[in-house]
């Protein structure tokens, strides 16, 4: 029995409203990277994104368990949104003057999450036990981020790394026992956040072109950027999101919770990070499409997109283990290698040519999968379930 998760629910309007704050936070991270396109800037940006993602993921688990639109819970979610907005506002100076503010607001977000989860676990001893097992790592991590705000330089960064490691690893205690997961709601919520992340790349096209002449090169770059964004959408929603949701529904209890944790809470983060890095590259490409990209934007273009697809490969592998056989396929691993191989060229070729090359990789991947998986893909999209064939095919 999956308790409250046994009844499938759709994502509520309040959850979507909550996610708008996360949209702003992602935009803030992209702006931070754009203002500081260095390896240090990337490190700081990814640490901030890691903290933001884990806070959002915590609430995704929470609202998968209790209805956020009922009674006092609705007001508490609004309060958490306010705290998360302060976190997002502090992002540009999270490693500078607003480090303490970021940490304190983040502490409030996480503490309210635990309090709401305790309410959701009332009368459910297994779920309450799971919440209690998670509480130490959540609170220790939050306190460390507050403490980091009083420090400077490498010491502050080191404390951030330790804090996030504690938070991310703390949920492994208990191996998923006690948690409740509603597969359809959980998959839908994460699918929507992937759309939000991809939307950030579209925003980057608009921001990157703002105030600049719309000549043929810049228009071409914008169209290619939208083509890559469409490729990001296609590679996730064409069949991957459908298959992962169905596999999640096949397992129960602790196995379901562990699978949800791995493929959604853990492996969707590199997808979002990859899209954010691509958004950075798009801003720089539109600004100077005729010149080669600098090292970090070039890494964002090739490496960010490779990271996005690598996460897909790992999701496929983790999901296929449910059937007792690990599979990574051919198409996406090959696309990851191709994108990484383009990095040295992106440092020499005009940015527009580099963007065209990565677009070609996505077009080739989509064409390959449409042909290679034609029959099982069609069956999946028609509601038939050849999941084992799709997961074990190489």
Please give a structural write-up:
This protein has helices at residues 13-35, 39-65, 71-89, 99-120, 125-148, 153-170, 183-209, 216-237, 240-250, 253-266, 268-287, 295-320, 331-341, 343-346, 351-372, 374-381, 387-392. The chain contains 17 helices and no strands. Helices cover 77% and strands 0% of the residues. The chain is mostly helical and 394 residues long. It folds into two domains: 1-180, no CATH class; 183-394, Up-down Bundle (I/LWEQ domain), CATH 1.20.1410.
Taking the alpha carbons of the first and last residues, their distance comes to 34 Å
- Structural domain tally: 2
The percent range for helix content is over 70%
Radius of gyration: 21 Å
Can you summarize the main beta sheet? none
CATH topology description of the largest domain: I/LWEQ domain
Q: Mean pLDDT, nearest integer?
A: 90
**CATH C-level label of the largest domain:** Mainly Alpha
Number of helices: 17
Question: What best-fitting shape do the alpha-carbon axes yield?
Answer: globular
Q: Structural class, please?
A: mainly alpha
List its traits:
394 residues, mainly alpha, 2 domains, disordered N terminus
What's the gist of this structure?
This protein has 394 residues and is an all-alpha fold. The chain is built from 17 helices and no strands. Mean pLDDT is 90; it is low at 1-7.
């Amino acid at each position: 029995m999956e308790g409250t998760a046994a009844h499938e629910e759709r994502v509520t309007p309040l959850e979507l409203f909550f996610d708008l704050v996360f949209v702003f936070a992602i935009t803030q991270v992209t702006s931070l990277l754009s203002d500081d396109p260095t390896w240090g800037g990337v490190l700081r940006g990814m640490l901030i994104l890691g903290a933001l993602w884990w806070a959002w993921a915590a609430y995704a688990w929470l609202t998968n368990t209790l209805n956020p639109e009922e009674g006092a819970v609705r007001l508490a979610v609004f309060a958490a949104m306010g705290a998360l907005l302060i976190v997002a506002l502090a992002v540009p100076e999270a490693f500078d003057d607003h480090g303490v503010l970021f940490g304190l607001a983040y502490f409030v977000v996480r503490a309210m999450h635990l309090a709401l989860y305790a309410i959701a676990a009332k009368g459910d001893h297994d779920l309450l036990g799971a919440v209690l097992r998670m509480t130490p790592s959540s609170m220790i991590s939050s306190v460390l981020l507050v403490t980091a705000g009083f420090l400077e330089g490498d010491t502050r960064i080191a404390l951030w790394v330790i804090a996030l490691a504690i938070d991310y690893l703390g949920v492994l205690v208990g191996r998923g026992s006690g948690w409740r997961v509603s597969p359809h709601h959980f998959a839908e919520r994460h699918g929507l956040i992937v759309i939000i992340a991809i939307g950030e790349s579209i925003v980057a096209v608009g921001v990157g072109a703002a105030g600049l002449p719309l000549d043929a090169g810049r228009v071409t770059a914008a169209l290619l950027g939208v083509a890559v964004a469409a490729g990001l959408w296609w590679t996730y929603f064409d069949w991957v999101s459908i298959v992962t949701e169905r596999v999640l529904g096949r397992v129960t209890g602790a196995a379901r919770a562990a699978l949800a944790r791995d493929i959604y809470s853990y492996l969707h983060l590199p997808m979002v990070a990859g899209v954010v890095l691509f958004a950075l590259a798009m801003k720089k490409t539109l600004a100077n499409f005729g010149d080669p990209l600098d090292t970090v934007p070039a890494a964002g273009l090739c490496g960010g997109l490779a990271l996005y697809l690598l996460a897909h490969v790992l999701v496929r592998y983790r999901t296929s283990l449910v059937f007792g056989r690990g599979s990574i396929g051919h198409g996406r691993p090959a696309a990851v290698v191709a994108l990484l191989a383009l990095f040295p060229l992106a440092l020499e070729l005009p940015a527009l040519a580099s963007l065209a090359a990565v677009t070609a990789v996505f077009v080739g991947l989509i064409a390959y999968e449409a042909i290679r998986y034609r029959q099982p893909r069609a069956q999946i999209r028609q509601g038939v379930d050849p999941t084992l064939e799709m997961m074990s095919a190489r």
